[in-house]
Amino acid sequence: MTLHVVGAGLAGLAAALEAVALGLRVVVHEAAALAGGRCRSWHDPTLDATIDNGAHVIVGANTHVERHLAAIGSAGSLAWLDDGIALLDLDTGLFHRHAGPRDLLAAHLTADGARGLLALLRLLAARDDATIGARLDAASTLTRTLWVPLATAVMNLDPQAASAGPFARTLRRTLLRGARAMRIGVARTSLAASFVDPAVTRLREAGTELRFGARLRAIEVSGDAPAALHFADARIALDAEDAVILALPPWELAHLLPELAPPHDTAAIVNLHARLGAGGDVASPALLGLLGGEVEWIMRRGDQVCATVSAADRLIGEDPDVLARRLWRDVARALGTAAAPVPPLRLVKERRATPAQTPDFERLRPGVATPLRRVLLAGDWVVPGLPCTIDSALSAGADAARRAAARAA
């Protein structure tokens, strides 16, 4: 039996690694020239530095990330920011810090008394058919200074439209496990160095065939099973025991098997990268949320800064140079460098960073299994219940591989 994994993003890499560990022969097909998908890194000539497509972060409760990094020998590649969540209000200059569950409870009780605690409980108990905005207390200071920026970042959608259930499950997984589960983790050097390159190396060492520049054009189906995979340069016939994992975003799946892809909108993310130059180094990565500006989060790593705007569809059509300089003003205010010359900037627009994670989309997420025998799905968007994140991508990929192996046994 051969397992064909289509897509070498994090879900596809996790599927391939798990399948190899279970003794399967694996072939990975990737349309791009490199692995990583929506979690990738490259050398940018403007900054003369390696940059990521975005400031992806994880939390201590992300057990699938921990497992993946251990499997590829990359556990030490993350920096843990043990101070928790810090947000700076650009209008007042005040910092809001939340390092653990006790801080959150104290903040709610201090700001709103028993009413604040009840609002937190309402949020933690939210269902998939509700929106986050409907569970928030609009009159609470913490709605603006914590929950709206956090929910927007996690769900990549305006909280008024985002499904409350996945966000609530994420909160329960972190808050109920203590301060360690709330730790923020970021890649020390790059996403590729932490999550992607070591995985590709492990697969190659195991003899896995990786076909880059191989875009799947069509899946030939016979009855209720796949018969062949059609690429631009080849038709690969499948034996009766062969299996396929489609580790693709829903918009790619819709071109191949539209009946398996749920109806969906997409949500954008805009990231601004800058290199501060001499005197701009920081000893270790740092993350800061911003209130009162367009930029929502700033991540510093060495002399580089990455500023992020989530749910950024409204910015996609803007002139990149004008937008970059406008976003930089928020960053400069936060760093206290407003009077300094503007450094080299690079704007990255991820037009389809995630599906729009609404209650309707949550209801239609298909899960790993499909009606086609020996065809499985993987990706951050596939399994209901959690936001579209690195952890959910890795989880779905490994689960799909285990199911493929079980069917082959």
Write a compact overview of the structure shown.
The chain is of the alpha/beta class and 409 residues long. 34% of the residues lie in helices and 27% in strands. It starts with a strand and ends with a helix.
Care to count the β-strands? 20
Strand content: 25-35%
Give helix % range.
25-40%
What value does the Rg take, in angstroms?
A: 22 Å
Given as residue ranges, the uncertain stretches (5+ residues, pLDDT < 50) are: none
How many angstroms does the end-to-end distance come to? Answer: 10 Å
Mean pLDDT: 93
What would you call the structural class? Answer: alpha/beta
Strand order, sheet with most strands: 8-7-16-17-18-15-19
The number of helical elements comes to: 12
What is the overall silhouette?
A: globular
**Main sheet makeup:** 7 strands, mixed
SSE topology:
Elements: E1 2-6, H1 10-21, E2 25-30, E3 41-44, E4 49-52, E5 58-59, H2 63-71, E6 78-81, E7 85-89, E8 95-98, H3 101-112, H4 114-124, H5 132-135, H6 141-155, H7 164-175, E9 184-187, H8 191-205, E10 209-212, E11 216-222, E12 225-231, E13 235-237, E14 243-246, H9 250-256, E15 266-275, E16 282-291, E17 297-302, E18 304-309, H10 320-335, E19 345-355, H11 359-364, E20 375-377, H12 390-408
Parallel strand pairs: 1-2, 1-14, 2-10, 7-16, 14-20
Antiparallel strand pairs: 3-4, 5-9, 6-9, 7-8, 11-12, 12-13, 15-18, 15-19, 16-17, 17-18
Helix pairs in contact: 1-8, 1-12, 2-12, 3-4
